[in-house]
Amino acid sequence: MNWKEEYTSKLVSIEEAAKTIKSDDKIWIAGGTNVPVELVESLEKRVNELKNVELLSILLFHPFKFLQSEEFIGRINYSTLFYGPFARAYRGIGNTSINSVHLSNSHKPILDFEPNVFFSDVSEPDEDGYMYYGTMGGCLNWAAQESATHTVVQVNKHQPKIHGVEHRIHVSDVNVICEANRELFELPEGEISEIDKTIANYIIPMIEDGSTLQLGIGALANAIGYNLGDKKNLSMHTEMLTDSLVYLMKEGAISGKKVVSFGAGKKSLYEYVDNNKDIHFAPFKEINDPRVIGENDKMISINSTLMVDLTGQVSSESIGHKQFSCTGGQLDFVRGAGFSKGGKSFLCLNSTLTNKKGELQSKIVFTMPDGQIITTPRTDVMYIVTEYGIADMYCKSIPQRIEAMISIAHPDFRDELRAEAIENGMIRA
Fold first, then answer.
1. How confident is the model at residue 238 (pLDDT cuts 50, 70, 90)?
2. Tens digit of pLDDT for each residue in 81-102?
3. Which of 322, 321, 376, 369 is nearest to 346 (CA)?
4. Catalytic residue at 114?
5. What's the start-to-end Cα distance of the chain, in Å?
6. 306: nearest Cα among 414, 201, 218
7. pLDDT reading at 180 higher than 90
8. What is the C-alpha radius of gyration for the chain, rounded to an integer number of angstroms?
9. What is the pLDDT of residue 5?
10. pLDDT band with cut points at 50, 70 and 90 for residue 217
11. Residue 112 pLDDT > 90, yes or no?
12. Residue 54 CB: number of other CB atoms within 10 A?
């Protein structure tokens, strides 16, 4: 039997594919743009037939009903390795269990979970019968495949055929095939603010020609990325491929190696990576390994954070006791840049926020609020950046760190921060 005949023999409706799931099954769902939305929605419709079905994924770009309704608890439960906006919107329901891990280690919870079922959206087969995972499947799917005995794929003509390692699966290696042609989720870029532009202007001059880039997600990263077009001989070793990095490739600014774990952005990003053999996709265990990151000279890591204390402890994943996101790859790349010859890592934030009462609050604090999670230890931090400048924290003394942080705090809070530091014997009057 050739692969085309095998494909036909395994092809069923989405409803039939969902009916192959039994109570007590443990299912890995490929994340982000590779979530097989229609297949999962069909599984949701069976909620009253099932018990103790466990779902594990990393990031959902869809507001599934199992996130929104208590009726799924105990029947179809969900765990995530990264807490994204759709899960966060329904935090009060209590059907999302969060496992916050470094992305470099994110395969380990999957191996421990030992899923017996594997779900993924995939591309149409190529001439040899391989179906590709698209921009977000290859980073972790391999770990689930080690234990899965039942593999269900949803073929989607919109999924790009990406190149790299652990990036595809053959028709002969799946049990069930269904089809649904859904346009991929497009990630909004966000409006670039004046503060974003100011912070970007501090960082851009510190990025040399020949640097290797890792840009985080959001408006600030784009404010930097879209303004590096005149740089030369840049490379890319990044967890996430963004629209601004695609722009730099098209402009020729990124002309060296192009290595990523996953990508999300506008439709033009998915079109750009489709059959683009110049971009190498690889799992988190490779891309996010700080030792591998550090092999790149002039490694530049740029990420956002939520709050920093005066000694440089960085909180990027919680607001008090409330989980906001997860550890992700921030510390992986901060440490990787520290290993790199000429490497630099930048952690960026607005100096203030306005609370629900309309009051201005400093995001640079003397001490963290109760429950605030430390994502990046002060001993790893290199540069902290606000709209008031750059604080060089790397291997500095505690008094030096405090003075640097006060200098980039909002002027309205500097005297108060200094007074607290003096009162607690951390700096001299």
1. very high
2. 999 899 999 988 989 999 999 9
3. 376
4. no
5. 82
6. 218
7. yes
8. 23
9. 96
10. confident
11. yes
12. 18
Task: Classify 84 as helix, strand or coil.
Answer: coil
Tell the residue number behind the tokens 């700080």, with chain if given: 290
Half-sphere exposure of 94 (CA within 13 A, CB side): 4
Tell me the pLDDT of the chain averaged across its residues.
Answer: 96
Residue 190 has pLDDT above 90, yes or no: no
Predicted pLDDT at 370: 95
Q: Are 234 and 208 contacting, i.e. CB atoms less than 8 angstroms apart?
A: no
CA-to-CA distance for 404 and 417, rounded, in angstroms? 12
What confidence score (pLDDT) does residue 218 get?
Answer: 86
- CB of 32 closer than 8 Å to CB of 59: yes
Run of H or E residues at 201 = helix 194-203
The letter for the amino acid at 361 is Q
Distance CA 156, CA 147 (A): 25
Angle at the Cα of 112 from the Cα atoms of 110 and 114, rounded to 5 degrees: 70
138 vs 156, higher pLDDT: 156
Under the banding of pLDDT at 50, 70 and 90, the label for residue 385 is: very high
Identify the structural domains of the chain with CATH numbers, from first to last.
Answer: 3-179 (3.40.1080.10), 194-423 (3.40.1080.20)
Q: Backbone phi, then psi, for 151, in 5-degree steps?
A: -110, 120
Please state, in angstroms and rounded to a whole number, the distance separating the CA atoms of residues 228 and 9: 51
Task: Please identify which of the residues 54, 239, 317, 387 carries the catalytic annotation.
Answer: 239
User: Can you read off the two tokens belonging to residue 137?
Assistant: 């499947």
pLDDT at 189: 85
Strands (E), 133-211: 150-155, 163-164, 168-170, 176-179
Locate 270 and state its tokens: 């998915």
- Whether 123 and 281 have beta carbons less than 8 Å apart is answered as no
Is-contact 225 216, C-beta < 8 A? Answer: no
Name the one residue in this structure whose structure tokens are 């199992």: 66
Helix axes 398-408, 411-423, angle to 10 degrees: 160
